[in-house]
Amino acid sequence: MTRTILGLMLAILGLAALAWMPTQLGAYGVGLLLGMTGYVALASAWALFSGPTRYVSLATVAFFGIGAYTVAVLSETLPYWAVLLVAAVIGLAVALIVGLATLRLAGVYFVIFTFGLAELIRQLVTWYEVNVTGTLGRYIFLPITAEQIYWQLLAVAAGTIAIGWLISRSRLGLALKVIGDDETVAGHTGINIAGVKLALFAVSATIITLVGAIQAPRWTYVEPAIVFNPTISFLTLIMALLGGANRLWGPALGAIPLFLLFEWLSANFPNHYSIILGLLFIAIVFVVPRGVLAGIEDGWARLKRRGEAA
Amino acid sequence: MTSLLDIQNLRKQFGGLTAVNDVSFSIAEGETVALLGPNGSGKTTVLNMISGALAPTSGVIALSGEHIAGLAPNRIAHKGVARTFQLVRILPSLSVAENVIAALAFRPNHLWGRAAEERAEELLAEVGLGGRGGEHANDLTYIDQKRMELARALAAEPRLLLLDEWLSGLNPTELRTGIDLITALGQRGMTVLLVEHIMEAVRALCSRTVVMNVGTKIADGPTADVLADPAVISAYLGEGHA
Asked: Does the residue A251 lie in any domain?
């Protein structure tokens, strides 16, 4: 109990320090911080669902784009908070429909479906914009500063990690562990497997939609190719895998170094960026399949055992 | 006696193969019944249909008169059916206690937190694993994994317990312990259907025995009579031995 309170206090202190950081940084620094926090939120939200269920989702950008586009379409007709709310509701609705339809797909079929879903939504939006509204791009003129976007993303990222922590201590968390170990046993102990997966997918997708909506004003100009860029899905996935999708802090720990690395790569090797990304992807899956955190824990356990044996 | 489980004209088809063909039997409240038959006779398929792991092609499965055939396993579990598996299925990443809490936390009147931990400890003590809840499920020996699996099944407070070759693979001492455990369950009024190859156990535990061969029921009656039935002996040993 005291450990929990201590951890909570540390988390609040850390959060306060992070919230204070923009005052010490220039515009570039704030932009970097903002992007990094966005990916911490995305990777943590992705891992809420994909970590325990081992369903590899490439639908991240579908929801991210839905969020961004909702803001682009509604920012001039509704107050900002209402736009965020509408975006979250749309994300949730799409997640429930898609989840109900697809969560019986297993393994690689689910991966392919989610990848296709992102592409489908992007094409639908493009078709609608070209044929119905007659434009392709939209401008977002919202009086929101980079600092404000950062603070919102920070709140979402912290909230996501808090949700992950709460889930891990709840019956839902145990249900997830049981499902991860053996779905047959899970069903026979009375766990509603489809319901659990759907709930998690919906929570994860809603958060991702919110991240897209919050980040949208940053772009000023939005078009489908920007906000439905599949690289966002791949980056999110690789970050969560690097840190460890089954650890509370894993996705955050993976997101920070990789985001900085990608920033550096895209600035210095813009033409080879995709190749390096692909190679890194392969390397991470081969070298640390369960993430760096799990790797460190294994190494630590091995060291301890050796210490005991000696 | 009223019957707890009623199976009528149960049938399961896998493509062109009829694994279970027109099987009917019932189990009374508090009875311990054996389901016998050579390998591939469809016993486990019957068990899988009762627990919901498989949906029947046709036929009726009723629990206290309520139809459960084709329902999802979690719904059937909530109606009071629990089982163990032919190849013991533990939850390897969880502790022994958590393996049991997994069932306590998701039964209809679920337990959580301290109450679940205490109940898990009681159940583990009941199957002979008292004080070992903190161990990793993966580190248990085979018999202890089977005990844990039984504790998990009992945690659901089932009305009907399905044991799929729960006693096989045990050494003679362990077998004795296992038989005593199931006997104790029967004395408490638990209804048990067990698929078993070990005749010693069947004789000791089951007043009644149902025998299947190539998907159909070939005998059903008091265990001693059924085991002496020429049709049953020939099904087990082949033609010419009866």
From this structure: no
Closest to B188 measured CA to CA, from B123, B129, B143: B123
Determine the residue of chain A that is closest to B137 in CA distance: A181
Query: Residue range A62-76: average pLDDT?
Result: 94
Cα–Cα distance, A18 to A1 (Å, whole number): 26
On whether residue A71 sits in a domain, the answer given is: yes
The C-alpha atoms of residue A170 and residue B74 are separated, in whole angstroms, by 19
Q: How far from the centroid of its chain's Cα atoms is residue B110's Cα?
A: 22
Helices (H) and strands (E) in chain A, counts: 14, 2
What is the location of CATH 3.40.50.300 in chain B? Answer: 1-80+159-242
Give A-chain residues touching B74 at CB under 8 angstroms: 186-193
Model confidence pLDDT, tens digit, residues B177-221:
889 999 999 999 999 999 998 888 999 999 999 999 999 999 999
**Cβ contacts (< 8 Å) between B85 and chain A: which residues?**
184-185
Assess if residue A26 is contained within a domain: yes
User: Which of A163, A211, A146 is CA-nearest to residue A52?
Assistant: A163
| Sequence-separated (6 or more) residues with CB below 8 Å from residue A302 | none
Asked if residue B1 has pLDDT above 60, the reply is no
ipTM value: 0.89
pLDDT of the residue at A309: 66
Rounded Cα–Cα distance for residues A301 and B72 (Å):
40
For domain B1-80+159-242, say whether CATH 3.40.50.300 is its number: yes
Number of domains making up chain A: 1
Question: Which of A181, A187, A193 lies nearest to residue B91, judging by beta carbons?
Answer: A181
Tokens 């008292």, located at residue: B130
d(CA A69, CA A63): 10
Residue type, A241: L
pLDDT at A1 (0 to 100): 65
- Tell me what the pLDDT averaged over chain B comes to: 92
Range with lowest mean pLDDT among A160-164, A191-195, A263-267, B53-57:
A263-267
Q: Which of the four pLDDT bands, split at 50, 70 and 90, describes residue A295?
A: confident
Q: Are A27 and A218 in contact (CB under 8 A)?
A: no
Over the stretch A133-148, which tens digit does the pLDDT of each residue have?
A: 888 788 988 889 999 9
| pTM attached to this predicted model | 0.85
- Least CB-CB distance to B107: which of A175, A178, A190? A190
Tell me whether residue A176 is in a domain.
yes
> Given CB atoms, is A175 within the 8 Å cutoff of chain B?
yes
Is residue B120 a contact partner of residue B97, using CB atoms and an 8 Å limit?
A: yes
